[in-house]
User: Fold this.
Amino acid sequence: MILEKYYFNYSLIGKLNKPLILFLHGFMGNINEFDEAIKLLYDDFDYLRLDLPGHGKTQVLGEDEYYTMANTAHALIKLLDELKIPKCFLVGYSMGGRLALYLTLHFPERFLKVVLESISPGLATEAERLERIKLDTQIGRKLTRSFEKSDFAVFLSNWYNQTIFGYIKNHPEYDRMLESRLHNNPQELDKSLRFMGTGCQPSLWEKLKENKIPMLLLAGEYDEKFISINTEMAKTCEFAQLKIISNAGHNIHFENTLAFVENIKGFLAVAS
Assistant:
């Protein structure tokens, strides 16, 4: 679907006669990110999946500013309008989770409950944001040098060496997940990182205090950095609750799909 400056690649699963979940994938993910979870959830919900700008088959038809969080969020609200979805549940992972939090805090009337997996509300100070922008720029340069698939594969292997990902490389489906990531365009990923990375997103810490939408925060037991961030988030927002998921690092829905699904079912089943 073409919406203003975007061509969105999306998939709507179901007949809109059940509660609907909008899934937002993480950096370097795509429309298929949550497929294993959806298989386990299948009978209970309808689903809206999509490729975010800079990922998969979605295309930005305008200038680079259309990769930003604010513009992407407005476009997603228009997509919901076009599909006649006035309210839905929202599930976001990592970068998609940061976007999901932005959507929740700026368009609270559109979301019933929200599940945020391994996310941050952004960086609180200008100095922190500038430092992160510098780091993301360096990462982006490495991406733009990935002219061959083999170069991109090396980048991905190094990416998943980060401490936050725990023991993800030991997962039996790790190679399949890596192959899925390789379908992205590194040049487009660089734009996503530069314009919707943690450094350039607006800090949402203050706005989080005002939130009244029920939120489930998920963090993996091996992801100490995001356990710390999400513990602070739960303290900041009385409508947020934190669950630590065992046998998982940053990518919970991949490493422990069953626990991820059980937590979603339990949380979304509770009366609003």
Observations:
- The chain has a mean pLDDT of 95.
- The CA atoms of residues 121 and 205 lie 6 Å apart.
- The radius of gyration is 17 Å.
